[in-house]
Design a protein that fits this description.
Elements: E1 16-22, H1 26-42, H2 49-67, E2 74-80, E3 84-91, H3 112-119, E4 122-127, E5 134-141, H4 151-156
Antiparallel strand pairs: 1-2, 2-3, 3-5, 4-5
InterPro entries: Anti-sigma-factor_SerPK (IPR050267), HATPase_C_sf (IPR036890), HATPase_dom (IPR003594)
Keywords: ATP-binding, Kinase, Nucleotide-binding, Serine/threonine-protein kinase, Transferase
GO molecular function: ATP binding
Length: about 170
Amino acid sequence: MVVSQPSRAGEPAVLREDALDYTPNPRSVSLARRRAARLVREWGHPDLVDGAALLVSELATNALLHGCLRDRLFRVRIALTPTAVRIEVSDPRGERLPLTRRPADDESFGRGLLLVDQLADRWGTSSRSPGPGKTVWAELGTGQPPRRPTTMSLIHHPPQISNTQNPPYP
């Protein structure tokens, strides 16, 4: 874990940072989720623990289902800046970018990015550096009261999708 790091041009300073590579199996998702919750709590943001854990769970599950290759690890990085907790999940499949979609009511999958979109203050993707692949990131603001609905309200009142032109993961 890094306690302080100089920032890249245009990015806020990193106050604390943790990154760990995981094997592409379902158990890794729960390990990453528990680690994120512990770190965010230790870093002094107990109000963001549940949101950070859920974001890690959703992004790591997407990496596992759509972005991992056999024998290639995925990475979870959590960084604390003066304004946000940033969660990044990197995988080796840069050609498979995440897109939100509206799943049918009877579908078991397809709601993860809807949760990410509603829970995170900002989220997006970037090319993985170094190496091939992509990074999907999400941020939770540290200085503002929560401005997103709770997880339970998302379950009972799913958000409306504005981007229905893009297909889901292939």
